[in-house]
Amino acid sequence: MAANIELFQMGDVYPSGQVLEAILGYDVAATPRRESAIWKLLGTSAPKGILLLPSHWGKPNSSRLSTQLPDKKTSLFFQYKRSRHIKSKRAKQWNYWRCPYFRFTIDEDQQSTLEDLEAKIEKLAIIRYAAPAFCKYRDLLRLQRESNILNRSTFISPSLLRGHQTWSFISEGLRGYANAEPQEIELENIDTLFLKLHDPIPQTTLPGHLRQLALALGLPTLSDKQNPPNWVLELIDENAEHSRELYQAILDFANISTVLGGLGISWSVYSRSA
Asked: Which of 52, 123, 241, 265 is deepest in the core (most CB within 10 A)?
């Protein structure tokens, strides 16, 4: 939860919204009205801005306001792991590190799912295991106050851990050691990870990005022969003035959230201007 909050504070990174708390581990992302009492409770005023409508997301080359909005989308999929702090000199990787180290176990079924997901989405999203390089509760509280949890975490692609059982490391962003077949692998930290988000990526609207992800995951469209869920039909009936693209985006968002939530994967969409 704390890591997701930091992602939200980093700029144009949007959490996946209101999903089952028991699955994703946090409650809600809210957009209070300007007159809401929450601003008084927080001792601040509502930030300046505009109410974003579907019409703001036109074609990337449109001359409308949409050209001023972020037009490049990359999804971040994080599989959070809890690190164990190993202090015993009799531990398996002690001879390699020669000092206390962190370690998490790789679940075979989870690893297989992440590898398959990583292969399907290709350049549409970045998938990483994310694990803290700290273990004490007081460190968690301090790092949370400092907004440094992500800076003190390590990230590793599932494809790099294929065939391994554990992953160990001593600090964030240096190197790690995969076992059973010993292999030293270069680690990522939050800075190097976000550099990857600035690699060349195609321009697309937010609904377009959701559609691409949904297609890569094999999720249904409104044009499929089978009827959409009842809640989508009710939404269309009650709001007939909106475009079909909007309803497709809502369906895609719900389907992607459900699939990733069932896998225990945290999902954020990172947006940036060209």
From this structure: 265
C-alpha 215, offset from chain centre: 18
Taken in order 133, 258, 5, 142, the sign of the CA dihedral is: negative
CA atoms lying within 13 Å on the CB side of residue 43: 0
Query: Mind listing the pLDDT tens digit for each residue in 157-193?
Result: 888 888 888 888 887 655 676 766 666 777 677 777 7
Strands 175-179 and 183-186: antiparallel
pLDDT digits (tens, 9 = 90+) for 76-117: 888 989 889 989 888 888 888 888 889 898 898 999 989 998
Domain boundaries, the chain: 76-203, 205-264
3-state SS, residue 188 = strand
Residues 6+ apart with CB under 8 A from 243: 54
Distance (Å, rounded) from C-alpha 169 to C-alpha 174?
8
Beta pairing, strands 153-156 & 166-169: unpaired
